[in-house]
Each structure stands twice: as C-alpha cells, then as structure tokens.
C-alpha cells in the first residue's frame, strides 16, 4: 500500500537536505594485550548427566575494550559482552553454572585483517561470537574464591564470510545461512565475596565483580582463514542474580526498520509525489511482539531509516544484495520493507540473510499488509534472525512443528503458536539479557505437543 502526498512545487524547500542515513559509526578504543587465560571447562563426565533443576539465574551485560591479534598485527576493537548463566541445585550439581547464553559482539571491526581479503562491501562491520545453543555447556564455580571460569564452544560470524562462501538457502528459499567460523571462548568471572551464589538474600539482587575473556578462532579451510585471537582487558562488571520461580530471563534484540522513499515530479506546474514503504511494520509488529514474548524475547524497535531510491520499491531477487548493502547498523537486525516483490510470491513474501548472526538482515514485502493475511510473517522472519530454522530441515536449530516457524508461503499465515523448544534454541550475538518477572510462557513444549505444520 502506498502513501502519497501531493503538494505544489513551492514546498520543495521543505524536502531539500533529505539524504539516506549512513551506517552506524563505531570508533575502536585501545586496549592492552593480555596473556591467554589458563582455564579449563569441566567435562560432562565430571558432572551429573541429568540436569538439576535451576535455582537462580545470573546475567550481565557490559561494554568491553579488546585487541584483535593475528600474527604480528594488533587492532583495537570495542564491543559488548552479554552472559546468562543458570545456577543448578547445588545438592545435585555443585560448583558448576550452566551456560544459557554467552555473546560477544565487536563493532566497527576491519574485515580485511580478519579474512586476509579486501571486502567487496563495507570495510568495517560487526564481528559476533555466540555460544553453541545446541549443546549443554558448563563453567566451573569456586564459591570460596568467588570465581567462575572455563571454556565455551561457539562460532564467530562476520559479513565478509558471505563473500568467501556464498550463503545457502534452505529448501523453502527464505532462510539464507551464512558460513561461520568455529571458536572457543575462554572466560573468567570474579564475583564479590559477600556470599556465594547459593545464598539467597532477595528475589533479585545485584553483585559486582569483573570479567576476563579471550576468543580463540580456529582455522577454517573453506573460508581460507587462519587462527586469530580477540583478547579483552579485565573490566568491572555488575551482575544481576535472580531466583526462580519468581523471575525469568528476557533476551533483548534491537531491530532497525528500513523503508524505501521516492520523490518524483509530475505535470505542469510540477506536482510533488512522495511515497514511503513500511506498512508491513505496523501490520506485523503486534504479532512479532506477542509471539516472541511467549519465549521471553523482547524487541527494541529503532526509529525508521530511509533509503531514497525508487528502484527498490519493486524488488527482484537480483537486487537483494544491493538493497541490503544500503544500511548496516552494527548493533541491530535490519528489516527492509519494499512495496512489493517481482514476482509477488518471491521468497514467500520475505526472507532472512545471515540467520542467527550479528549481521542478520530481513527483506519483507508490504503486500503482506496489503492483503491482510500474514499477521505472523514478520515474527517468522525474526525467528530466523535469532537462529531458528524451518521444522524438518535436519538441523539442531530446527523449530518446532505446529509453530510460527512452519513455512507458509505467500498469502498464507504462519501458525500463531510458539514452543519451549523454540525458546531454548534462540541465539544471536546481538542478544542481551535481563531479569524480569515471570509472565505467560509458550503454547506447547516441542513438535510432539505442538502438532504438525499446516
């Protein structure tokens, strides 16, 4: 649906100075080089295999100053660390914390020093690390020393990886997966000595401490990238410690909407025709909020950014790369709204590139709103952005059948259902964590209880 505004040429002065917003600027900060952390992760063989019921959650978010080290080259980078650890019942699993999420994202990272190749796109970008959500991981906890330490398996993503190994679409064609690089996170957290994490003093309390982290990237033959490290100086940290069942943990994600703008003049005297896309946001936003609130995912919606280029109003498959290159905001998932696709049913009305990575981007057609059918379309694509795949893809990241992650096609809504399984698989380096009061949860547990896809 188009918004049009006609005005006399005399108002042209109001429209001067309109330019497409630039990419988010990030200035790297210097940080001293640290020695590698000497830490080990407790193996599952040393821990009771059956997970104990968690008694508390520990979350933290902080800005970090780091150094990217490759060979003799050192590059200062800055970013953010976000952690969500669960405290098991110490009677069953003492002295360990279960990793529910551990994310690092660095902003404005020069891509060429990481890959060894000059990027075709932006010179700098967000580099993300996320712990593997597919496996149970633990950190060691020493209550006497107030230390939490160990190694976490995960993966690194960088937009230029998509240039080195082209993204692969799933069989439904709307989920384009980018190659990632395997990595290990070495972490050591210190917590104030005013009581162990097993001692409850309030439903939610704050603790202070510090964190050291080091990301060690593994060589990747397909990407043709060698090893490198990202070392973070020790920084003070404020933790939130909350106790179940009063609380739960929210996963927060920034979303940057992008619309297409067009200004043309017709007739004589000239009349201004002004057009903006973006109806799909107001139409799909309620469904995205409601469906993902069931999984404790909270979206932080930025104000519009606008690309002033009428050629993108009707988008073909060959134009998607150019459109996605128009806006890159390092700390958000961008969602581009075009007026329509050509053909209309392209990608089933929308698609996601770089699913589950810090550089994830979505393109959606406003025709989802025009026809008034696909209320859950935006929620579905955001599900891809937070790592979930279609059910039956054969991946550990498959969403549950019978839920919003079922593929639907154009002019056919996804189920307005979400599951505990989907909630457990959510992952993206951009996610931050916060303790909140318990609210309504998922509709069902997994594919066995959620039913079949339509």
Strand content: 35-45%
Overall number of structural domains: 2
CATH C-level of the largest domain: Mainly Beta
Please count the helical segments. 9
**What portion of residues is helical?**
10-25%
Distance between the termini: 28 Å
Rg over CA atoms, rounded to whole Å, is: 23 Å
Morphology call: globular
Query: What is the third-level CATH name, the topology of the largest domain?
Result: Porin
Low-confidence stretches: 1-50
Oligomer: single chain
Number of strands: 22
Structural class: mainly beta
Question: What does this protein look like?
Answer:
By secondary structure, this protein is mostly beta strands. The protein has 2 domains: 44-171 and 178-245, Porin; 250-445, Collagenase (Catalytic Domain) (3-Layer(aba) Sandwich), CATH 3.40.390. 12% of the residues lie in helices and 41% in strands. The chain has 9 helices and 22 strands. The strands form 3 sheets. Strands 1, 8, 9, 13, 14, 15, 16, 18, 20, 21 and 22 form an 11-stranded mixed β-sheet that branches. Strands 2, 3, 4, 5, 6, 7, 10, 11 and 12 form a 9-stranded antiparallel β-sheet that branches. Helix 4 packs across helix 7 (377-385). It starts with a strand and ends with a helix. The relative contact order is 0.16.
Defining key terms:
454 residues, mainly beta, Porin, Collagenase (Catalytic Domain), 2 domains, disordered N terminus
Outline the fold blueprint.
Elements lengths: L2 E6 L3 H4 L38 E17 L2 E16 L7 E15 H5 L8 E8 L6 E5 L4 E11 L3 H4 L3 E2 L5 E3 L3 E11 L12 E14 L10 E16 L3 E20 L4 E6 L2 H15 L3 E5 L3 E4 L5 E2 L4 H5 L8 E6 L1 E2 L8 E4 L7 E5 L1 H4 L6 H9 L34 H6 L6 E6 L9 H4 L4
Parallel strand pairs: 9-20, 13-15, 13-16, 13-18, 17-19, 18-21
Antiparallel strand pairs: 1-14, 2-3, 2-12, 3-4, 4-5, 4-6, 5-7, 6-7, 7-10, 8-9, 10-11, 11-12, 13-14, 13-22, 20-21
Helix pairs in contact: 4-7
